[in-house]
Each structure stands twice: as structure tokens, then as C-alpha cells.
Records
---
Amino acid sequence: MGLLTLILIAIIILVIIGIGAGTFLSGLWNGVEKVGSNPVIQNLTEQGKQFFNEKAQNTTSEPRNTTIGAPT
């Protein structure tokens, strides 16, 4: 796994050097905008927000004693 990561990092660095950092970042930003405008991604984002909001509302606001061996 480590070797694959190093190879991918080397390839990305070579691409940035080859096409220029501005062009690389511009293309990367365009890709992010396309993915963000995808309705499937928007629905997943909204579902994730709802899930975490529900979980946050279900938690108690009372502090808990989490010391090991402490009486409950």
C-alpha cells in the first residue's frame, strides 16, 4: 500500500510540473464544481446533514462521569 501511494504522489507531482500548477488547480476546481452540482451528491450531503442533526439532538446535555472505576 505504501509503494502505491508513493507512485501516485510521484505521478501527481509530474503532472503538476508538466501542465503547470495553475492549469492543474483550475482543472481540479472545475472537477470539484461538477461533482458538487451532481444531484446524487447533493442528496447524499443533505441526508448526511439530517442524520448528524438527529444524532446531535438525541445526545444528552448532561455531563457524564467517564472515569474508570468511578461509581455511577
Note: Residues 22 and 28 are 10 Å apart (CA to CA).
---
Amino acid sequence: MINHFSQIDVRASGSRRGFLFLMEQAHSVRADTRCVTQQACRKGWKVDVKATDKRIGVVVGGGNGIGAACCRLMAERGWKVVVADLDEGSAKAVSEEIGAHACAVDIRDHDAVERLAADIESDVGPVHALVVAAAAFQDRCTAFEATTDQFRNVFAVNSEAVFALDRAFGKAMVRRRSGSIVNMASAVVYGSSPVHAYGASKAAVVSLTRTLAVEWGRAGVRVNSVSPGSTLVERQLTRKSDPRFTTDPIGTSALGRKVLPREVAEGVEFLASDRASAITGIDLLIDGGFVPASMWGFYGGVPAAEDP
């Protein structure tokens, strides 16, 4: 068990009874910084928590795009980050930039996923947060053009691998009665689109997230998902247009712009952290208002900014 008592500075306004209460709680079987702080606050005592030990966050798909943005932000916020990616070179590049650990993994190999979780727990330490940002994309097509292999390949990464990762890392979290998982879904789940496999696979992520949130909730493990809208990742910056869209998403969003990777990372890091300690089973939509504005096309489009 990790002893967090050295991280707690108790100022109980001269109350010896309050100090003894915290001492007793800190040495209980399942005491950790969070439960001691919550119980002390309910009794009206002031508790300062000084996190001297960095919490470990694993970002799968952290070698590029939104995953890399999550790695950078989490490192800035004091996390001890492990960057995992299919592309070992990309994982190492991000890890060297932020001073993190790096490892390569093919998440379609569920045995490799189990080894990854075990190795990180053994070599790096107990994982507090798992972020699953890896994804497989597809170009738009009709139902008649879509192939069975396409569905299998997309679902293997976007759905089956997410379940394998959540289960592999969730085992230790459940045993420790503490942990947070953030899965990456997509704004596409809030409507319909001609990316049949991708949309269905991301809808499966939202459903899986809610199921695990309830199944593991009493064990102290939170599970949430984030649904980004059109995001300015590297691959969008290097090409003039996105083959998935026939119109520019900028014109159909409430904010009139695309989302930045760091803006998605802000939501991910929040849900991963204890600042979201009462939030589980939700899907956080970060799309610049694309989904809320979807019906405005019937009324002439999203209005321009005007002074009242």
C-alpha cells in the first residue's frame, strides 16, 4: 500500500481531537489522501494536501494528435506520463520532449495490452489514470461501398482494443479502489454520418464507458469519455481539405472555428484528475458547438456576432 500520510499537512485549528482523527484515518486499511481529506472537510477542519508523489498517467495513442496534446498537458500539470503508441518513434519523440516514459504497443493484440499494463505497474508504478486516445479512421462511403474488413479493422482499434485496455488497467485500479479512465469517443455519435464503421465504433465506446462506470464505481474507479469535434491535429494542418467533409465544419459550428488539440486535452486531464472526483459515466462533448448548431441550417445558418 502507498502511504500518503507524509503528504498531508493538518491544521485542525488547535483541535487535538481532529489531529487524532486524521492519524487514525491515515493508518486505516484503505486510507489515502483523498478519503482523509474528504472526511476532514466534512468535519470542518482545514487540510492542505501537498502532492509530493507524481501520479502516473498512461496515454495510449500519445504519439500524435490529441493523444500527444494530452501527454504535454498532463506533464505540465505534474503527472508522471507514460506515452504508448503503435509508432515507437513518435512515442519516443513526445516522451523526450516532456520527460516521460515511452513504449510501443499494438493494441489490437490483447495479450500485448495485458503485458503493457503489467509492465507499467511493475516498472513505473501504480497507474492512477488511463487515457485511450488511439483511433482508426475511415473515409466517407456508402453502405454498399463499406466492406466487412473495413468494419473489422476499425472496430478492432476503436472498440475491442478500448475494452482490452480498460480491462487490463482497470484490474489494478479496482484492487486499489482508486483510478480514472478516459476513453476517446467522437462528436459523430451525436448524429448520423457516412462513416459507418467509425461512427458505430465510437458509439460503442460511449456505451462501454457507461457500463464500466457503473460496474467499477463502488470500487472507486471512474470511467468517462470525451467526444471531440473537428480538431486541428497535424494531419489536418498538412492538407487543404478533409475527405470526410464536403463542407467546412467551421461554418456550421457555434464558435465558428475548429477545436484545438489542447482544448480537448483540457477536458481529458480534468476528467482524469481528482478535480472530477464525483464525475463518472459521462461523455464530454468538446466540439466548438458543432452539435448544438446542427439545426441552424434550417434557419439561415449560425448568426454572426452582433452587438445587442
Note: The longest helix spans residues 148-176.
